[in-house]
Amino acid sequence: MSEFQCTAETNEQPGSVSDVPGYLMPARAFFFIVVEEVGKDGFLVRKIYASIKSPYLANMQLSPLQALSEVSPERYGMMPKNPNASVSIAEHVMGKNSSQFLSTSSIFPEGSPRFDGRSIFIDIEKAKRAGARLVSTEEILADLNQYKAQHPHLAKRVDKIASYVREIDKEILIDGKKVPASAVFNQQSLSVTNALVRSARVVQVLGVAFTAYDLTQASRESIEIGSAKPISAELVRQAGGWGMAWAGFKVGGVAGAAVGIESGPGAIATGLIGGIIFGAAGYFGADWVADHIYEN
Q1: CA-CA distance, 293 to 285, in Å (whole number)?
Q2: Which of 22, 78, 89, 118 could be a cystine partner for 73, CB 3.0 to 4.6 Å?
Q3: Who contacts 191 (Cβ-Cβ below 8 Å, separation ≥6)?
Q4: pLDDT tens-digit profile of 119-177?
Q5: Which region among 167-176, 186-195, 223-232 has the lowest average model confidence (pLDDT)?
């Protein structure tokens, strides 16, 4: 009789039943530390109003939410003043600010020296992921040239604006209905987040629970043959059940840091199984990798 079986007395009366409490199935959990990098593609800088009581802000006649996004975009996100407008790129940079565009600078971290205000930083990769489209400095200058050709009487003014865009502001426009708050940082939040990434390397934690019975059998086999291959293969097979293609990609990018919770004789299962194994499983499939480690 194994450790997972037991006997219980019953009477001989037909239809009688007896509840027998079973053993709790032990489990072993592994927690993988995963870092979500910020600023992978760099940051854009925007100067914003320091106070919602600014007279310039009041003159814009914005909705309450738009006003809050102007002074606290790291909390409310960033949104253009008129997301449904069809203002051209040239018209926006020449002063028609009630448009679908948001002006930013590629000069990090200072931003454009022509504007005063509090600096906020937009994570380019996160903004794009949310659906924002960037209009490069070169695209702005090309549109200004086209605008000048259509309005020759404004040539001198267009040339002056173009020199600001090219030489001072390094302007880049964001074309999108909204940049989420998660993509916007202020000086303090960016500093804190970068410190976490550099030191603790913790932004997101994934937990994975494995059934202890199969791990125990694989552990015993590993002990009997003196090799970690059986338990390594079993870990990969079980991990495949909770979405290895995604988790393998995430876990494979780190050192495979794992913390084992002991349960029974399978102590060998608490050894660190590196990110290489899980990363490969994410691309080729858990069973394929497991069979190459140890075929059962």
Answers
A1: 13
A2: 78
A3: none
A4: 999 999 999 999 999 999 999 999 999 999 999 999 999 999 999 999 999 999 999 88
A5: 223-232
Q: Which domain, by its residues, includes 217?
A: 203-293
- DSSP, collapsed to helix, strand or coil, labels residue 135 as strand
Amino acid type, 19? D
Interhelix angle for 137-150 vs 155-163, to 10°?
170
For tokens 């086209």, name the residue.
Answer: 146
Last residue of a domain, one of 163, 195, 227: 195
Quote the tokens at residue 125. 């990769």
Do 74 and 176 belong together in one domain? yes
Q: Which helix (H) or strand (E) holds 171?
A: strand 171-175
Q: List Cβ neighbours of 247 (8 Å cut-off, separation of 6 or more).
A: 32, 206, 208, 239, 278, 282
